[in-house]
Structure formats: structure tokens, C-alpha cells
Specification:
By secondary structure, the protein is mainly α. It is 73% helix and 0% strand. The protein has helices at 2-21, 46-74, 88-111, 115-145, 154-184, 191-218, 223-232.
Length: 236
């Protein structure tokens, strides 16, 4: 399992590096001065950037699928105790929805030439994502105070593992947002900025869907997955 996860992380790193390389030949200064609504030059890096993002999301998706599968198989063991999901997770989920909507709005406003709205919504998305991480840490502390620490039982360990891995991907996305905001500030309606915002929004929508799946498991709604894993492993 560890070898598989390490291999997937290697693939994800390679995909992210490939995606980042698409901006090396960019010349954003050539785009400055274009009037809003004027014909934008065709960005030939867009297909490559999209392919890189799809590759990255595929690898990350497989990683979370493996975690969910391991969760389902481990849940059949006698020592398994599903930790009570803190109520704070509902609030955190709402924050992630707002973050996703904010980035989608930023991408749409950028494409529509609404620079101030795009910058504002980008900031809203980033702030909500940061608040989501703070909320997840608070949920960890609440769970630990109730006696469900990392080493208390396998169910608690999986809670911290899955939410922690997801949080790391949110943190990575925040770094990408910070770079995007710094590089597009004052020029957020350019072709390059539109591409970056669309990619960031797609990544955020993906992380939201992943979180909804994890949330369902942590709330105990994953009985179908547990039954399937039980059948595949012969009930062991």
C-alpha cells in the first residue's frame, strides 16, 4: 500500500511539474494593454495545460480511491470503531462550497472582462479555503478532546489520515492560488489569467467532490462501499 501511494505521489509530482512548465515560455507583458473585449491571441499552451491538469486529477483521484477502499476493508475488522464525525464538518463543508463557487465566479468574471469582481471572488475563494483548513484543525482538536486521538483506534486513525491528505491538497491549491493572484494582479482579464483561473476552479471543484465522498464515509453513509469491500475480501 505504501509503495502504491508513493508511486502515485511521484506521478502527481510529475504531472504538476509538467503543468507548471507550460508557463515557462509565457510572455504576459505582451498581453498588457489589450482592451477589454478586444480579440485575444490564441493561447497554444491551453491544451497542454488542460492535459496536465487532467493527468494530475486522475492520479489524485486514484489515491483517494485507494484510501476509501482501505477504509471499507478495514471497517470489517473487530477492533474497528468509527469515530463520531464532529458537527463542525458540516460548517467546513459549506466553506468549501463557497470557496468553489468563488473560484468559479472569478473565472467567469475574468472571461467577461470584469477585473474587480474577478479579483474579489478570487480572494473570497482563497479566504474560504483557508477557513476550511482552520475548521478541519479545530475538528481534529475536538475529536481528540473526546478521546479519539490518532492512536486510539483504527477508525480514528483513518479519520485523521483521510482528512489530512485532503487538507494537504487544499493547502497545495492555496499555494497555487497565491501564485495566480500575485502573477495576475492588475491583469486578471488577460488570456493567461483566464486560463489559470479556469484550471484553479476545476481543481477546486474536484477537491469539493472528493471531500463530499470522504464526508459521506466519515458520517457512516458508506455502507455500500464497506459491503462491497467485504465481498471482495471474503468477509475478512
Amino acid at each position: 500500500m505504501i509503495v502504491v501511494v508513493a508511486f502515485l505521489w511521484l506521478l502527481a509530482f510529475g504531472a504538476a511539474f509538467y503543468l507548471a512548465r507550460q508557463d515557462i515560455a509565457a510572455k504576459p507583458w505582451l498581453e498588457r494593454g489589450l482592451a477589454v473585449g478586444a480579440p485575444q491571441p490564441i493561447d497554444r499552451r491551453e491544451p497542454a495545460a488542460r492535459a496536465g491538469l487532467i493527468m494530475l486529477l486522475a492520479v489524485v483521484g486514484v489515491l483517494f480511491a485507494l484510501l476509501a477502499g482501505a477504509f471499507g476493508m478495514r471497517a470489517n475488522d473487530a477492533d474497528w470503531i468509527l469515530s463520531p464525525a464532529p458537527g463542525l464538518l458540516w460548517f467546513n463543508t459549506g466553506l468549501l462550497f463557497l470557496s468553489s463557487f468563488g473560484l468559479e465566479g472569478a473565472a467567469r468574471c475574468s472571461a467577461g472582462g470584469e477585473a474587480r469582481k474577478a479579483e474579489g471572488l478570487l480572494l473570497v475563494g482563497a479566504v474560504c479555503a483557508g477557513a476550511f483548513l482552520v475548521g478541519q484543525i479545530a475538528a481534529w482538536r475536538q475529536l481528540a478532546e473526546e478521546g479519539f486521538g490518532v492512536a486510539s483506534n483504527p477508525g480514528a486513525a483513518f479519520f485523521y489520515l483521510m482528512t489530512g491528505v485532503h487538507g494537504l491538497h487544499i493547502l497545495g491549491g492555496l499555494v497555487a492560488l497565491a501564485v495566480t493572484f500575485a502573477q495576475t494582479r492588475g491583469d486578471i482579464v488577460s488570456r493567461t489569467a483566464q486560463l489559470r483561473l479556469r484550471l484553479c476552479a476545476a481543481y477546486w471543484h474536484f477537491l469539493l467532490l472528493v471531500w463530499l465522498g470522504l464526508f459521506a464515509l466519515l458520517e457512516g453513509w458508506g455502507g455500500g462501499l464497506i459491503t462491497l469491500c467485504s465481498g471482495l475480501t471474503g468477509g475478512h
